[in-house]
Amino acid sequence: MEQYTLVFMKKGEKWNAAQPGFLDTLKPHGAFVQQMIVQGKIAIAGHFPFKNPGDLHGVAIFRVGGDETTKLVQDDPTVKAGLLKPEIHPWITGKGVLAPGLAVQQ
Fold first, then answer.
1. Does the predicted model carry a pTM greater than 0.85?
2. Do 57 and 8 touch, CB atoms closer than 8 A?
3. Cβ-Cβ contacts under 8 Å for 55 (sequence gap 6 or more)
4. What mean pLDDT is predicted for residues 50-54?
5. Domain residue extents for the chain
6. What is the DSSP letter of 3?
7. What does the DSSP 8-state code read for residue 62?
8. Which end of the chain, N or C, is less packed with Cβ atoms under 10 Å?
9. Which H or E run contains 7?
10. How far apart (Å, rounded) are the C-alpha atoms in residues 66 and 77?
11. CA distance 28 to 32
């Protein structure tokens, strides 16, 4: 078993998809996620279609512990701007299901 950190990206206080230029405000988020993947911090990430009416807009599985994940997501431009709000959870899955994560701490 390996431990990861699961992050649900939820609608932040300043989320307004109807605002002109809104999609442009999300572009730095994509660059941030790509940087985290290149650095080996994120195993996988993706977003839900904007048409979904709920508060959940994306999910990321980090390959680092909860404390480091918390610090990293605070640097996400969309979190800083109040567009997205992270909900962070420890998560365990079978070894080899994803790129290597942290050893399970008993």
1. yes
2. no
3. 10, 11
4. 78
5. 2-103
6. E
7. E
8. C
9. strand 2-11
10. 19
11. 6
Q: Read off the amino acid at residue 25.
A: T
pLDDT bracket for residue 82 (50, 70, 90): very high
As a whole number of angstroms, the distance between CA 96 and CA 101 comes to: 9
Cα end-to-end distance, the chain, whole Å: 11
What one-character-per-residue DSSP string does 71-84 give? HHHTT-HHHHTTSE
Give the pLDDT confidence score for residue 63 in this predicted structure.
94
pLDDT at 105: 66
**Predicted confidence band of residue 32 (pLDDT cuts 50, 70, 90):** very high
Task: Please count the helices (runs of H) and the strands (runs of E) in the chain.
Answer: 3, 5
Task: Give the tokens for residue 2.
Answer: 């390996």
In angstroms, the CA 2 to CA 20 distance is 43
Yes or no: domain 2-103 corresponds to CATH 3.30.70.1060: yes
Looking at residue 38, what DSSP letter applies? H
Which residue's entry shows tokens 């918390």? 70
Residue 60 predicted with pLDDT over 80: yes
Whether the Cβ atoms of residue 9 and residue 85 lie closer than 8 Å to each other: yes
Whether 104 has a pLDDT exceeding 70, the answer reads no
